[in-house]
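Typical record is below.
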Amino acid sequence: MQKLSETPLSKVIEIDGFSFAGVTAGLKQSKSKDLGLAYSDKPVTAAALFTKNSIVGAPIKLGREHILSGKVQALLVNSGHANVFTGKQGYRDCKKICKAVAKEFALPKSQWVFPSSTGRIGERLAVQKIIESLPKLKKEKSSKTKSIIDFANAILTTDKSIKCASIEFLLPAHHEHGMPSASASPAKKALEKQAAPPRKVKILGVVKGAGMLEPNMATMLAYFFTDVKASATQLQRILKQASETSFHAISVDSDTSTSDTALILASAKSGVTLKHKADEKLFLNKFESLALNLAKKIVSDGEGTKRILELTLSGAKNYKENKAIAKGVINSPLVKTALQGGDPNVGRIVMAIGKTAKDLNENEISIHFLKKSFLENASPLVSITNRKNLTKLEYKKLKTLLTKEEVYIEIQLQQKNRKEAAATAATVWGVGLSLEYLQFNSLYTT
């Protein structure tokens, strides 16, 4: 399943300061691309988020160490083997590869190499194959769109398609000297106060993920590249905040991966800085829309999924509690099977709410089925409470809504004005549980 309503961000644009490559190193039986590189001629500012699973891969362990410098010059990603549960040898393998990358690309520090791996757990990396493929990566790297696509293909595992998106927008280009001094002449003050013309900023996102998705990112690798100038602290803040309403708000099967990574790199090539809070806020807003676009692409590619659920829930104490209850609903196996089959079994939703939420008054609960997203101010087409049975017409409408590829539900735990409730409402995205998912994952390693 590929269709999903989203902002038009699918065009892939080149980002000044970065080159890419994707090659076949022979790590997969399919012989498809399995080794990707993102590279900058100079170390760039970086920030990252990692899985919250207590068992993590060697690349996560080493990546956490390397990101402390706030600088990255080369990102190397392999697919096919996750290098998880491989002990001290897996960590040594990862370090060896990073050192080989530093040597091949003449980097002064191997700590400027950021490693990522995805694939089967419990199997060591084919270190020699990876190292022998580095010259090919070096030869093929370029800033062109084709190279970005090659990189995107190289990081895939069970994904049906690549997932890329980009956005470009204008930010004010402030004078480097800041505000004029009190002693400056009137002419100089006037000159320095003149607003610099806005300048274009670009962000590119490349992600992978289809299964083992929940709740703190997903089985997901997400890489973002921008030409803005920002500090590592700013990038960390932006990445964390944007992930909360995107990658942390999706689920395919409620399993948290051992390899989740989100990384943002900033080349500063645009010359635009996030000097003022208003600039950072605008950048964050655009970044959030890009991250959400990509998060939805991941959900829509869930292994064998037929139907996607967007659920907005309000009425708990705060956003965090609303989100936890909403996640409890979309992760319920009975809700997921009903969703996959388009079955209007509202009782399963009621069960899932009660299983997760505390101190409920069932007389206050209402479940609304919408034609389009709550985020687009959609009005309910069918509403259900414990005080009212569905009419035949409403039941027919409900069945029709549940046959769509995208299903929109709003749950209110308290009878409040919708606008008031929206202030702390949480929106999450889940999928149906398909026979294809069961068949695929029952035979994953064979």
